[in-house]
Specification:
alpha+beta; about 500 residues; 4-stranded antiparallel beta sheet
Length: about 500
């Protein structure tokens, strides 16, 4: 016979899972989302735009580099990331305020759009102070070589111009308002104008070669694969063609695909570099990026070529993959090179010799710091990633699967896999409840944030403080949006 105590224990065991997974009311989730967004848009943003991190009292702010109060950052998780999420929130809730906020973010981007049609890393609403800010602050940020000089042009680096263009396209397709069509077409025209005849894109445009880096030529006009410059434009133009119907976008995207084929290096190093000179030879960029065959970029190009086959049904995009996989198979790191048992490949390999190349640094700032490249696998530069893991067997297996598809089956597969709503992840319900409870009175999600030592990124004695992260706001809002969609699908 059970005692009263045993019955109570059994009752708790039965009820506890139900209580822990209790679903928050939709109206409460929507209320929390609006509270957080109202705070970010009215108290944190600058003219609808954002940087990446803020001190809790909003007295300091940072993008990828230290930011002036008049600055916003274009790239995700800055203004573009927030704008895209706001459109997602509008689609999920029907709340017109999210659309109004998305328009505000877009207007900030349009204000800072370069006359050529693209964007710089950031927008400064006090444009007259930008050059001085570069001279006094950004040029002293050791390790951020892309900020050493102010070019005054636009960049494809880190999805800056492509991200802003995609957001404007999403907003225009949502509203069909002419005021967004004009800057969108200017941005797409910029992408067309900046493409080289061989299909590649430079890192920056309009073209400049004003600044050398450690005695090396200015790398910003090279044919650039690094940071997804060329592939980012390819996929954006394909999307633009699908949504806007201009055949010029499709033709430019296909030229970009053909450049991936063209830029593959020859056997036995049949991989890809990060950037190329006009003779299609690998060239160096920043002081930690040597002229090299790059293993991670090779994996990306292999995967893209398989995708290009599924888009077009043209088997020419598969022809170079076996040689690329063979190079990866021949380039496993020897055991005495590995920093741990997980890694398989170096990031950089010397052209011709196929020896792993490694970046190192010493010093405490731009005045006494230096970087160099050699063959030594010890004391590696920490913040870039000199070694990593590649599952070559899985890559080869996927290639064999794709190769076996007929062109018709390949294109059918691509069409069937496009789009779709992100699925809710296990634990989202519990997370949503915690997120709702963790908002402060203002509507802010505060946390410990870490700010790099921008004067010394190598040794990087990070500063820790309580602050607000735009990335965290985006993550939390996306979690709540997924939750709302999942709840509705179950009804």
């Amino acid at each position: 016979m059970r005692t009263l105590r045993s019955w109570l224990i059994l009752l708790c065991l039965v009820l506890t899972p139900a209580l822990s997974s209790a679903q928050p009311a939709e109206k409460d989730v929507r209320k929390a989302m609006r509270k957080a967004t109202d705070f970010m848009m009215t108290s944190v943003s600058r003219h609808g735009g954002f940087v990446w991190k803020y001190s809790a009292d909003l007295s300091e702010q940072w993008g990828e580099a230290p930011a002036r109060p008049s600055m916003i950052w274009v790239q995700d998780p800055g203004t573009v990331g927030v704008g895209m999420m706001l459109l997602d929130a509008y689609a999920a809730t029907g709340d017109a305020q999210y659309l109004a906020y998305a328009k505000k973010a877009a207007n900030a981007l349009i204000w800072g759009q370069h006359p050529a049609g693209g964007w710089h890393y950031f927008i400064d609403f006090d444009a007259g102070g930008v050059q001085k800010w570069y001279d006094d602050v950004l040029s002293k940020c050791w390790g951020w070589e892309e900020y050493y000089h102010y070019y005054g042009n636009c960049t494809f680096d880190d999805n800056v111009s492509t991200g802003a263009t995609r957001f404007l396209m999403e907003l225009y397709m949502t509203t069909l308002e002419p005021q967004y069509r004009t800057p969108l077409l200017a941005a797409l025209g910029f992408i067309l104008a900046s493409q080289y005849p061989n299909g590649a894109w430079p890192q920056r445009y309009p073209l400049k070669d004003d600044f050398s880096f450690g005695g090396r030529p200015d790398y910003t006009s090279y044919y650039t694969l690094n940071d997804d410059v060329t592939r980012g434009n390819i996929f954006l133009l394909l999307e633009a063609h699908a949504r806007l119907g201009n055949e010029k976008y499709k033709a430019a995207a296909h030229r970009g695909m053909d450049f991936i084929v063209l830029s593959q290096l020859t056997k036995p190093q049949a991989g890809w570099a990060q950037q190329y000179d006009k003779d299609l030879k690998p060239v160096a960029a920043r002081s930690i990026e040597p002229a090299a065959v790059m293993s991670r970029r090779t994996v990306t190009c292999i995967r893209d070529l398989m995708t290009f086959y599924r888009i077009t049904g043209n088997r020419k995009y598969l022809s170079g993959i076996p040689d690329a996989i063979a190079w990866l198979e021949s380039s496993y790191l020897p055991k005495h090179h590995k920093m741990n048992d997980r890694v398989t490949h170096a990031t950089f390999y010397e052209p011709g010799m196929n020896k792993p190349l490694y970046a190192h640094a010493e010093g405490t700032g731009i005045e006494n710091g230096r970087c160099w490249i050699d063959y030594n696998p010890k004391n590696l530069l920490a913040y870039y990633g000199m070694q990593h893991r590649i599952d070559v067997a899985a890559l080869k297996k996927e290639y064999e699967r794709i190769k076996a598809l007929t062109p018709e089956k390949a294109t059918e597969e691509y069409r069937s896999r496009r789009g779709g709503t992100p699925a809710a992840r296990k634990g989202d319900t519990e997370n949503v409840t915690k997120l709702m409870q963790s908002l402060d009175k203002r509507g802010a999600w505060t946390e410990e944030i870490r700010i790099p030592d921008f004067d010394d990124v190598v040794n990087n004695p990070q500063r820790k403080l309580i602050g607000i992260s735009t990335a965290t706001y985006l993550h939390n809002m996306k979690t709540m949006i997924r939750h709302l969609r999942t709840v509705r699908e179950k009804k």
